[in-house]
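Lecture notes, unit on protein representations.

Consider one protein chain, 700 amino acids long.
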Amino acid sequence: MPSSFITGPFTFQISYSEAALVRCLADFVKLHRWRLVITIYENDALGWVSNTNLLLEDALRANGSKIEYHAIFQPQNSLSDWEKTVEAELRQMMQYESTVYIVLQSSEGLALSLFKKALELNLISPRYTWICSNDITDLFNSTLPPTFIANNMQGVIGIKSYINESAEYKDFSSKFQKMFISDYGKNDENFYNPGVYAVRAYDALHAISLASNESKMKNTSLAEALSLVNFQGLSGTIVPTNHTINNMEMKLSYYEIFGIVGRNSANLGFWHDDFGFNPDMKNISSLYKLPGNQPSGLRPLKVGIPAKPVWKNFVNVNTTINCISAVDNSAVTGFCVDVFIEALNFLKYNVSYHFFAYTTERNSSCKVTKYNDLVNLVNSQEVDLVVGDVTILASRSKNVSFTQPFLTSEIVMLVPTENTHIGWLSVKPFSRNLWICIVCILFCYIFLVWLLERDDGEADEDFDGPIWMQIAASVWILSNSIFLKIDQGVGSYHTKIVLLWWFLLVQVLLSSFTASLSSILVTEKLPLSVNNLKIGCSAESFVYDYLKSTLNYKTENLVKIDTADEFTYAFDRKIITAAYLELPYLRVFLSEHKNYAVNGESRTLGGFGFVFPDGSPLRDDFSKAILRLHENGRIMALQRKWFNVSLSSSPYPVKPNKTKSLGLQNFEYLFIIFTGFAILTTLHKFIHKWWTSQTNHTEL
């Protein structure tokens, strides 16, 4: 039993150090870069092995690994159907990712049933790694027949306390075998070599003998003499520590690592508490005579992907998919898939995987209809991870873990841009009809000025010239009047009154034009009104719920879009006036469609990441790989491969709630009044002139 379980001041124990064994196992796992392991042990009444399992769990965690599952067997005599129990536990182990099985403690009965059933379930193969500690390896030399080991335990790795085969040990071994055959008879199979426990039993008797002699010589108690014993035993240096006669507590532990090949064991190397593994430690793949790298310690990962995503640049499955289908790895393409494959290349161990495509279609009969369902497959252990354009959200991170984002993400509003050229912005304050009316009134005032000035004796001399010169003089007088130069070049006081009406009308029009243009320029910067829009969003993403809960959009204002092409269709048919997209989707959309741009502020999200089970060490490895892909520019290269537009180069959009131009109805009464007074002033001159001529004629 392990050394830390001894209790009582008068009780001594000779045993191995479970702390040293745990350090050796943890270093072996670290050496092979296994991130997940499964421990197997047969429980005992005092729970000693459970403590060893806890120590191993802490040691593995310190190295960045994790015990994925504990396969715990109760003592054989407490179960009615031992074989059935063993098979059920092995099948349960097969559901987990890890293919590294560490057997911490086992009786002979469990060992026989365990490896026999494991072979039947194809768990004894190069894909799986079995590691046995002293409790099992000691059986190799005693009760486990060599034929059983050869037939059922090929490739199993053993870790046993190293015993130096000195002359004293060889003498002990020879006597041990003779006595064993004498007591139990000779068998066709030779498995009479003394194991570590037999050697330690011999050392224990040797320690008692030495202590007994010492106590008689110094007249002390046997317990006191045992606490002082110190000698070189067959199993190594025997040093008492805390009532434990132990040769391993003082950094003296020495383990041999070997593998089963045929009927023999092949040495792989050694581990020492001070120096770790020897430099020429062999790869465990040599047990199966396999070329290449060491086993990854993981079964092929079941990778979930969206089968029919809205944006195929991220994940695209080039085959027919039902609700769920296993697809060939070569049939899956896209930006996210490229990032996943690139990240695998940065891992320090081999990982095999198979893609399983899940249909994410709204209104389908499949259980996965949106990305939240896809994420939940990881929590339910239906898949090992999810690869795709999955946004990192707090609500999704409750039961799963995301890697570092491989693509940043924001949610932005997309609107169509205006086709009208920006150069015509200066005429937008007035409507077309109003501009036509203003031009007509201008000609009217030119005609009135010309009519009043052409027969006036005090008029400018230009009115004595040809008709085009008279018209030019009239235009000049109207222009000067805008700047209050009403007297310049004007002969008739009636003309001055008409120019006064013209001046007042122009000032009103100029003020209105300035105010309207300012309003247009200001409102171009204002956000769109929530209540006046029909907003499109992807049906399978989280955006629909986000718009309702966070941005307070009403349900009747939201339109679900199932495919990327439907966005342009909905814009063209005025089904939607704007759409909310995540930034990566926007890049794809703008690279394929013109006359669209971004409106308003963006809202930062967590980005796109891969989904792993909560606490998975693989997630940390993938996160580090993604960071390296960012640092070496590979992520940017993949972005250039799949996206061809930059958001910063997008044109400004035209807002659906743009300010309306001022129309003729806004000035019709003003035009009638001012122009009417100008006409009346002109008529007054000619009526007054006619009346004067009539009066003078009567007097004559």
